Amino acid sequence: MTQAERKAEPSSQLSALNRPIHGVWSPVLVPVQDDFSIDVERFLAHARWLLDKGCHGLALFGTTSEANSFSLDERMQLLEAALEAGIEARQLMVGTGCCALPDSVRLTKHAADNGCKKVLMLPPFYYKGVSDAGLYRSYAEVIDRVADDDLRVLFYHFPKLSGVPITVGLIELLLADYPGIIAGLKDSSGDWSNTADLIERFPDMCIFPGSERYLRQGLESGGAGCITATANVNAAGARAVWDAWAAGSDALDGLDQNMIAARTAIEAYPVIPAQKFLIARHRKDPQWQRVRPPLLDLEDRQGVELLESLAKIDFDLG
Amino acid sequence: MTQAERKAEPSSQLSALNRPIHGVWSPVLVPVQDDFSIDVERFLAHARWLLDKGCHGLALFGTTSEANSFSLDERMQLLEAALEAGIEARQLMVGTGCCALPDSVRLTKHAADNGCKKVLMLPPFYYKGVSDAGLYRSYAEVIDRVADDDLRVLFYHFPKLSGVPITVGLIELLLADYPGIIAGLKDSSGDWSNTADLIERFPDMCIFPGSERYLRQGLESGGAGCITATANVNAAGARAVWDAWAAGSDALDGLDQNMIAARTAIEAYPVIPAQKFLIARHRKDPQWQRVRPPLLDLEDRQGVELLESLAKIDFDLG
After folding, report:
1. Is the confidence at residue B4, as pLDDT, over 80?
2. Residues near A80 by Cβ (< 8 Å), separated by ≥ 6?
3. What are A210's strand-pairing partners?
4. Which residue from A252, B6, B100, B317 has the least number of CB within 10 angstroms?
């Protein structure tokens, strides 16, 4: 099938272009000072740079933001700083799912009250093997207590880290009671068959693969785009794939291959320290390299290897 | 080997009786109201009852306390309420390990400043597969920032829930730099061979099995006692085993068997809801049955089954 045929082909699925939440979103790395406190100025500069590079929006306080390593106050203050600096609320998707119900309520209400209606919610992730009914109650309590009809909840499915999967059954329970508010899902399972299944089962939800590796397949199947950690260093590459797909351009194949090659090179290392390392090198700013415990900065040896493997492909961070 | 021989046998291990932290400790269930807020009065009554039943101390804000489902403020307020109500700081071991470094610092400092020097610390538990060096940095930062020489840190090893094991390598790293402060470990792995290995490797640490199932084996091997969820409904049974062991009594075998039979019956169900159910029935107080999301109250059908299986053994909650 040529690109032109693909573009012309009618689909029963809503195109990503017409979905209320769509595009290439970057979960934003959060730089820290020597004492591990958030470096607000470096953060704001990076957030603006990601938007300039073509991100449709920024997911703030997911895994890549080291969100669970920061306190509620740190998270709320950084969001306020971003808004005060002129990043628009509509450009943000805010991570608000915590282990403790009152914490999830507080962060979600804070985001919504500040105009950020899109929230990306982890399930409470300490207890494992909890029932869908228990997780339903967690999400429902947050939605009820925040009580904002404009709230848009996206599930954050990352079973390898949370240990608590978002099941089809849970989504069905919540969609039935909160239509409109239950709006989407980020699938960080790394399992394309799971993403494809969710897109097919929930055609009205905005389903985002958690890696640009599946951006194109997602777009061709009714997905909404991607929310991908590695957009922090390759936002332009992911946006180029999006644009080529949207235009039905024959450049899509090559752009897609380049983008995936970069992803493959980076994810051979711990993705958060590896990207902070790349940004530190690119900006000649060693402070960028630092991560908050329990993560560790990338070892120099690993960084050199990563730079070598990226030098072999068509990749330009600049 | 008879009881008398066992008592007389010299051991290279420190006896539990001579360890600075020892005995039968109950992680305390935390009752909640209809709106899931903490029910302070019911909590205080239960805490006192556990001490009356023979607990050497109470572990507040571990898994059984649903600690990670409560906000920092809720946790600190309940600790203050317990102290104000006359529960002594020395009788408490406070759970203070969170995902976020500033949260762990805040809770640990709050406990220590209120005289509670014994803290039971989960590792930061969102990121999985983190290195010992990263976990070292997490614990070391907390200890350095709290800066209290009287602090006594007990590791909380519960890999099934935290997903982040406490390794021998991590303990060695921290013991080397913080001797005296690194004081013990609760082993909730459920794997006796792991507990035995830790007791042997770290003879100066107070190692507690996370189940009364291994209380006796632990005591016979140099363990410090047990910190066990099911002491909430069988503190007297566990204390009787401790006393029989300490006295070298021939009653030990029978008491141990009874206690383990009760544990086996209860842990066939979700342990937190099951015990809240048993207490609700025993006190004719249905409010006790409630758990905070994401957990779910025990189903009545399960509760009836549990009561039936407990009726078959020598078990008396009263």
Report:
1. no
2. A114
3. none
4. B6
For residues A123 and A102, what is the distance between their CA atoms, to the nearest angstrom?
13
A71 touches chain B (CB under 8 A): yes
Q: Distance (Å) from the C-alpha of residue B294 to the closest C-alpha of chain A?
A: 4
Res B14: pLDDT? 81
B137 vs A contacts (CB less than 8 Å): 293-294, 296
Q: Is the pLDDT of residue B300 over 60?
A: yes
Q: What is the ipTM of this complex?
A: 0.95
Determine the average pLDDT of the residues in A173-185.
Answer: 98
- Helix/strand/coil for B146: helix
Q: Does the beta carbon of B293 lie under 8 angstroms from any beta carbon of chain A?
A: yes
Is the CB of residue A123 less than 8 Å away from at least one CB of chain B? yes
Instruction: Quote the CA–CA distance of A312 and A134 in Å, as a whole number.
Output: 49
Number of residues written out for chain B: 318
| Residue A101: closest CA among B103, B294, B62, B95 | B294
Is residue A33 scored above 50 in pLDDT? yes
Say whether A69 and B163 touch across the interface (CB within 8 A).
no
